[in-house]
């Protein structure tokens, strides 16, 4: 791991993902998590304040970056939530099939190299009747913004730790064996190429 990836990138990602518009988006969805929860891309723990603690038994926080986990640890230590880290990439989920009630993924599907494989893994560990909760940025509906996204994405991805600004999030979810049950979309404040958000819920199709 390079100095940039270990010492600089975690702080940049935390700064960007902790913006007020992004936190308002987290507030809309994280409280829906219940039971045994698998959070994909736990990051620096930015979702922690928005869990409805009385509805959650355990959180499996999948986060491959040791630097991110170190930054999240004080939030975990200060919380009453039972959090256990999994230090593996999103494509590798070492949990049993049908073992979690909720999968939560926020601002992470943009970064996972093989998002379809990761989503198939999420479907595998989700119990029948469980739900996938998502909140992501992705491809915009306006053609001029889409052109910007496609043009800027190669350089942006290198700078931003593999983040892609032009992924079709609902298509990824639907193509991975899920049926989307709630689908909301809008531009949130910020650079338009990075601020078109998708959020909602899905179940196993």
Describe this structure in words.
The chain is an alpha/beta fold. 37% of the residues lie in helices and 27% in strands. The protein has helices spanning 3-17, 20-29, 66-78, 115-125, 143-159, 169-174, 192-195, and strands spanning 35-40, 56-62, 83-86, 100-106, 126-137, 178-187, 196-204. A seven-stranded mixed sheet has the order 3-2-1-4-5-7-6. Strand 4 (100-106), helix 4 and strand 5 (126-137) form a beta-alpha-beta unit. The longest helix is centred in the C-terminal third of the chain and has 17 residues, at 143-159. The mean pLDDT is 93.
Summarize the structure.
The protein has 205 residues and is of the alpha/beta class. The chain has seven helices and seven strands.
Helix content: 25-40%
Low-confidence stretches: none
Structural class: alpha/beta
Using only C-alpha atoms, the radius of gyration works out to 16 Å
Question: What is the typical, i.e. mean, pLDDT?
Answer: 93
Largest sheet: 7 strands, mixed
The rounded distance between the terminal residues' Cα atoms is 38 Å
Number of strands: 7
Run of helices and strands:
HHEEHEEHEHHEHE
Taken as a percent bin, the fraction of beta residues is 25-35%
In what order do the strands lie side by side in the largest sheet?
3-2-1-4-5-7-6
**What is the count of DSSP helices, taking H or I runs of 4+ residues?**
7
Global morphology:
globular
């Amino acid at each position: 791991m390079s100095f940039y990836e270990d010492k600089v990138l975690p702080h940049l990602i935390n700064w960007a993902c902790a913006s007020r518009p992004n936190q308002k988006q987290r507030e809309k969805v994280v409280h829906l998590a219940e039971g045994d929860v698998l959070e994909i891309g736990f990051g620096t723990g930015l979702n922690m304040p928005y869990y409805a603690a009385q509805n959650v038994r355990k959180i499996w926080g999948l986060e491959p970056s040791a630097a991110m986990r170190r930054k999240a640890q004080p939030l975990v230590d200060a919380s009453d939530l039972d959090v256990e880290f999994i230090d593996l990439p999103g494509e590798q989920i070492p949990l049993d099939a049908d073992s979690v009630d909720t999968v939560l993924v926020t601002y992470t599907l943009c970064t996972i190299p093989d998002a379809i494989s990761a989503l198939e893994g999420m479907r595998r560990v989700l119990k029948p009747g469980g739900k996938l909760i998502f909140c992501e940025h992705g491809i915009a509906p306006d053609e001029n913004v889409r052109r910007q996204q496609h043009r800027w994405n190669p350089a942006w991805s290198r700078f931003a730790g593999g983040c892609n600004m032009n992924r079709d999030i609902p298509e990824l979810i639907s193509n991975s064996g899920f049926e989307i049950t709630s689908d909301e979309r809008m531009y949130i404040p910020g650079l338009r190429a990075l601020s078109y958000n998708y959020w909602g819920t899905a179940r196993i199709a």
